[in-house]
């Protein structure tokens, strides 16, 4: 049984239909990356899949007592509020020094445990947030553009860490990223979202498709830049677009 299984879901924010006709499932241990333009419903879909917001139609089934670890885009910390990394990882639930040490070691920042949260660099903070997300030994790790603000080598390191954690913990990973070219090698499956699912598949299959080339350019070696990705047409909930899209893209070769 999949960890999460969504069938034909629609999600509305008031009058805005943010996601429609989406069916997808997340299997144990796989890494799934959702890409798509701004406002295409990526965060909305993630939040619905983990049960944080309701759907307006369709069904989402989650494995019983599913353990989810969530890494937000960023954390706003009041610099006047003193809080060490160790204390932060013990909120809202006290987990103890050993669990904190294990989690920080797994994310490669064990030396930061006594540091103030407000004194961390962007990359260090993301690793601390990741450490917090794995404290409950998650079956699914969910990341919403977790590398925003990191430079490309920093992002690449972070995604390598995610892959290593997946291998170590055995969790599935569901993430949103704008950096498909960076995340590609650490992904089993790519889903391109624009309200509905435009195309999906393994990176190897997706990169070989015409739809993918239209979306992301034709560069080689994974050095593809998702630059601008316009879908200026309406859909009625189909799962694969067979018609032309209008895209502007740039391939960094
Ligand atoms: N809380 C909300 N109330 C009203 N509308 C919302 C809300 N959250 C999102 N929306 C709308 O739903 C649509 C999808 O937004 P969402 O944040 O899911 O997109 P996204 O793909 O994650 O975007 P981005 O890449 O910019 O983060 C957008 O039109 C957005 O304006």
Automatic annotation (TrEMBL):
Q: Which Pfam families has this protein been placed in?
A: ABC_tran
Q: Which InterPro entries match?
A: AAA+_ATPase, ABC_transporter-like_ATP-bd, ABC_transporter-like_CS, Metal_Ion_Import_ABC, P-loop_NTPase
The EC number of this protein is 3.6.3.-
Q: What SUPFAM superfamilies does its record include?
A: P-loop containing nucleoside triphosphate hydrolases
Q: Which UniProt keywords apply?
A: ATP-binding, Cell membrane, Hydrolase, Ion transport, Membrane, Nucleotide-binding, Translocase, Transport, Zinc, Zinc transport
**ABC transporter domain mapped to chain residues:** 4-219
Q: State the Gene Ontology BP annotations.
A: response to zinc ion; zinc ion transport
Enzyme class, broadest EC rank: hydrolase
| GO molecular function terms listed in the Swiss-Prot or TrEMBL record | ATP binding; ATP hydrolysis activity
Q: Does the keyword Nucleotide-binding apply?
A: yes
Gene3D superfamilies tied to this protein: P-loop containing nucleotide triphosphate hydrolases
For this entry, the protein name equals Zinc import ATP-binding protein ZnuC
**Lineage, highest ranks first:** Bacteria, Pseudomonadati, Pseudomonadota, Alphaproteobacteria, Rhodobacterales
Q: What would be the name of the gene that encodes this protein?
A: znuC
